[in-house]
Structure formats: structure tokens, C-alpha cells
Amino acid sequence: MMSLTPPRGCLLDLPWEDILVPHILCHLPLQQLLSLQRVSKSFQSLIQLYLANMRCFDSSQIGPAIPRAAFVNLLKDNEVLQQLALQNCSDWLTDRELLPVIGQNHHLHQIQLKGCAQLSRHALVAISLSCPNLRRLSLAHCEWVDSLSLRSLADHCKALEAVDLTACRQLKDEAISYLVQKCSRLKSLSLAVNANVGDVAVEEIAKCCPELEHLDLTGCLRVKNDSIRVLAEYCPKLRSLKVKHCHNVAESSLSILRSRGVELDVEPPLQRALVLLQDMVGFAPFINLQI
After folding, report:
1. If residue 180 lies in a helix (H) or strand (E), which one and from where to where?
2. CA-to-CA separations, 190 to 136, 160, 165, 263, in angstroms, rounded
3. Largest CA distance in the chain
4. pLDDT 10s digits, 2-54
5. C-alpha distances out from residue 168 to 33, 61, 126, 171, Å
6. Cβ distance 239 to 262 under 8 Å?
7. Segment 191-228, tens digit of pLDDT
């Protein structure tokens, strides 16, 4: 008698490159995919195919810390990455591990290297030479970034839209000015926690980057009112400005931006005084903080 029970299908019977990799595996957390490799040799081959074709790699998806050997093995065959986030590798990542990945991935448009302190200027030069379509780059707390490597970035990655140079303390006005002259499409820039940045850099940013929307100058002690006024004049699309701990920036320059609805991280003097009074004396019921 013929059985009417339909044959049981297997996930691995589906087309790997046309169905599984682009439409199914991409929706699973990377950590779970790596665990699948232990199921069978077939699953191991499937996951290796996925790793070679994935467009986005974020080390934080694997866990709080990814081992050096695992990182090297995961990306050794990939040549199509578009996004790379390695902040969870900051404890051990050096040029030796990063440069091969950068060298074989020419389609990267977003790179996150926040806190990767053991890299060198050669890493930034490699990025500039290998990633002409780079749009977003975070080098926050990478104190190895110097003016020469930043010039290389500016010369080769002119499509940059967002750059985070927080605490890159080797950089001075001249280097920042060169960057914005070459990368006029910038919409977001952070120069926070760098006492070397002053009015010269801020004014050059204003004049060269008409599309600028977000600027972080937190702790840039040499920035003064004059450059903030230039910023207000030349950057009509500015949406947020951070100037906390910029002791030479006063309300006389910030009020122009405030009146345009630009988000600022410092309150008006009267508002600050009322909040302080509320905290110290407890006058909350008697003070209208909407003044």
C-alpha cells in the first residue's frame, strides 16, 4: 500500500546561496550561528559559507570579549564586508589582525574602532587606501591617530559623512582643517576631549561643511565665541552642538543657535541658576522653570 505521508524535508535541502544565506541565516544572531557549526559537518560548511558572504560584522554580537584566534578565523575568507564594528576587540586588536581584513574588503562603508588603543597609524593608512567608499568611521579614544594618517584618510575617503575623533589628542587645528577641506560632505563630527582644537578648526569646519548636522566640541578648551558665531552663520542644517566644558563659549554666541532650535548640551544662564537654586534651597514649588 502506498504511503500518503509526505516526505520530510531538511533545512539543508534548501538552496544555500540563494535562500539560506541571504534570507534566513542573516536574521539569526551571530553567536547562535557559530553554535550551529557543532551540529554536523554540513552545518559547519553552511556557516562557513555564511561567514564568507556576510556584509556586517559586529564583535559585540558574539559576547563581551571575542578571542583573537576566533576573530581571525571568522573573517579569513570574507571579501564583501560593508560594516565592521570591533570595539569589543580593543583589549588585543593590533595591526597584525586588522590589516588583512581591511586589505581584502574594499566595500566597507562603516568602521567602528572605538577604544582600539593597540593599533597604529598604519591601520588608518590601510583603511584610507582600501576603503574609498567609507562613509562612517569611529576612532574615538584612539590616541595613535596623528596628522599624517588623518591626511591620508582625507585624501582617499572624500565621501565621509560621519567621523568620531573623540580624545584623538595628537590632532591639532591644521589636521582637522585639512580633513574638512577634503571631506566637505561631513554631517557628523566629534572632536571632543581635545584641548588642541581651537577656533581655527571650528571656523574651517563651518566654512567647508554646509551639510553639518552634529558637532561635538566637549572639552575643547580653546574654542571661543567667535568660531561659534561663524558656525551659526555657515551651517544652516546644524541640529546639535555639544560645548560642555568649553569655558570660553558664552550664551552670547549660543543664543543664536538656540533661537534656531539647535539642540545644545548647556542650559541658558538663567535656567542653570534656577535649577541650582532648586537643588540647593528646595524652592521647586515657587519657581517656574519654563522661563
Report:
1. helix 173-182
2. 12, 13, 5, 15
3. 92
4. 555 555 668 887 877 788 877 788 888 888 888 888 888 888 888 889 899 99
5. 36, 27, 18, 6
6. yes
7. 999 999 999 999 999 999 999 999 999 999 999 999 99
Residues 176-181: contacts with CB under 8 Å, at least 24 apart? 176/201, 176/204, 176/205, 177/201, 177/204, 178/147, 178/150, 178/151, 178/154, 179/150, 179/151, 179/153, 179/154, 180/204, 180/205, 180/208, 180/209, 181/154, 181/208
Output the CA torsion sign for 77, 82, 83, 86.
positive
CA separation for the pair 242, 265 (Å, rounded): 5
**In 10 A of CB 88, how many CB atoms?**
21
Condensed to tens digits (0 to 9), the pLDDT of residues 163-195 reads 999 999 999 999 999 999 999 999 999 999 999
pTM of the full structure? 0.85
- DSSP 8-class letter at 250: -
Q: Collapsing DSSP states into helix, strand and coil, what is residue 34?
A: helix
Which helix or strand (DSSP H or E) is residue 161 part of? none
Distance CA 21, CA 261 (A): 45
C-alpha cell at 276: 541650582
